[in-house]
Specification:
Blueprint (H helix, E strand, L loop, with lengths): L32 E5 L5 H14 L4 E9 L8 E6 L5 E3 L6 H18 L4 E4 L2 H11 L1 H9 L3 E6 L3 H8 L4 E3 L3 H8 L4 H7 L8 E4 L3 E5 L4 E5 L4 H5 L2 H6 L1 H6 L7 H15 L7 E2 L3 H5 L5 E4 L5 H4 L4 E3 L13 H4 L5 E5 L1 H5 L2 H8 L3 E5 L16 E7 L2 H9 L11 E7 L1 H7 L1
Parallel strand pairs: 1-6, 1-7, 2-5, 5-6, 12-13, 12-14, 14-15, 15-16
Antiparallel strand pairs: 2-3, 3-4, 8-9, 9-10, 11-17, 16-17
Helix pairs in contact: 2-3, 3-4
């Protein structure tokens, strides 16, 4: 048979700009997610809620889940299938049997997903995925082996059949929301952040020797700039014409200077002047936690606030560790405090994976103060809200360091509900 082309999740993302970025940085493929459950557990509700959450963040989701209805007064028991792409509910012909009726929908769902830009395909029950896979043949099998983004569920008694079907490819997941988000993975936080950016005018871009600033209509964003500032300065006018969302889409590229510009644009959307947040960085509460604390990037005064913390730095001083040590120190720690510089150099997803399930704080002027990051394991967001963009623009142009930003804004933090309970 002719194999259809398998669409990459990147197809659903904004196209990278021409110029320094020749190609978009790829989002890692996912092994199939397989929720193992007891037959009595309402697994379809779990999958549907997760699919809606991902879809609500701007990702393209296709697939279906099964809806079982218990008998009521004057109503016979029946089963429906809900199409996740449009919310339509399809009544199953009970005389044909649920498997026979559902196979056509399963096959059509996967056929469309194989040809269209798709970030996630949900096939509510493995039996439907199995039959659809047989109908589409090697196309689905090839997709599964390369990480086609499929989420399904398997009753424990059917596990041997799943392993036979998939060649043991896949990630077994417990039946809870946290496990689904961990499977979805922190590498997808970049398109997630971009999807949430509210487009608008870029009023000003300031490129300094150490930091850059993007001023939007409702807020101002910052990002650390390690190199490439000279090239950015020559293109400021062209970058401004892209708008805030166009700048944010540069996060999908490889060039570090453009990625810094993207992070600043993202922050200009989320770190609004009028946003509601708690004062201070909120790290003192984390410092009181029992167990081992790891800092990736030293924060000012950390030796007094966290004297026993293990500190990882790109240029370590006495008593600090080099960046390679993060691979050893983060696993098993109780608390991890990560620098928002990891957003620009793209180390943040890896660091979040290593730190899971520790309490995690993301800190620094470049932190996007958005609850979207909570789903990826960041419990505390400690960032900066600019209140005097004119004063900050002058400071950045003159090469000011973060400690000199204080007169031009306020340090604030936000916590997830779970993080708030753990630090109470």
């Amino acid at each position: 048979m002719t194999r259809p082309t398998i669409a990459s999740p990147l197809a659903a993302q904004p196209s990278p700009p021409s110029g320094l970025n020749a190609a978009a940085s790829p989002v890692p493929w996912l092994k199939p997610g397989v929720v193992m459950h007891d037959p009595s557990f309402p697994v379809d509700r779990l999958l549907a809620d997760f699919a809606r959450a991902v879809q609500g963040r701007g990702f393209a989701v296709k697939g279906f889940v099964q809806c079982n209805h218990q008998p009521g007064e004057g109503v016979a028991p029946h089963m429906d299938l809900m199409d996740l792409s449009n919310g339509k509910v399809i009544r199953i012909d009970q005389h044909a049997g649920p498997r026979g009726a559902g196979i056509d929908i399963a096959v059509d769902t996967l056929r469309r997903a194989l040809h269209e830009p798709t970030d996630l395909v949900v096939v509510g029950r493995f039996v439907a995925l199995e039959r659809a896979g047989h109908a589409l043949g090697d196309a689905v099998r090839d997709g599964l082996s390369t990480g086609f983004p499929v989420l399904t569920s398997v009753a424990a008694r059917c596990m041997a059949k799943w392993q036979s079907f998939s060649g043991r490819e896949g990630t077994l997941l417990p039946a809870n929301e946290t496990a689904l988000w961990r499977w979805w993975g922190p590498d997808r936080l970049y398109p997630d952040l971009v999807h949430g950016v509210v487009d608008g005018e870029v009023r000003r871009i300031v490129v300094g020797p150490r930091w850059l600033m993007v001023e939007g209509e409702r807020g101002t964003g910052l990002a650390h700039l390690s190199k490439g500032g000279d090239v950015l300065r020559t293109r400021v006018a062209a970058f401004r014409r892209r708008g805030l969302r166009g700048l944010a889409a540069l996060a999908h590229g490889w060039d570090p200077a453009e990625r810094a510009l993207a992070v600043a644009a993202i922050n200009a959307s989320y770190n609004r002047r009028d946003m509601d947040a708690l004062p201070g960085d909120g790290l003192d509460d984390l410092a009181k936690a029992d167990g081992r604390t790891v800092l990736i990037g030293a924060i000012p005064g950390y030796r007094d606030r966290m004297p026993h913390a293990q500190v990882v730095e790109s240029n370590p001083r006495d008593g600090e560790f080099p960046m390679a040590a993060a691979e050893c120190l983060l696993p098993g720690c109780t608390t991890a405090i990560l620098s928002a510089a990891g957003l620009v150099n793209r180390t943040l997803p890896r660091l979040l994976s290593l730190a899971c399930p520790a309490q995690v704080a993301l800190t620094g002027p470049a932190t996007p103060l958005t609850p979207r990051l909570h789903a990826y394991g960041v419990g505390t967001l400690a960032g900066f809200v600019v209140t005097d963009p004119d004063g900050l623009a002058n400071a950045i142009a003159q090469g000011a360091k973060p400690w000199a930003f204080a007169p031009f804004g306020r340090v604030v933090h936000r916590r997830s509900a779970v993080s708030s309970l753990m630090t109470a």
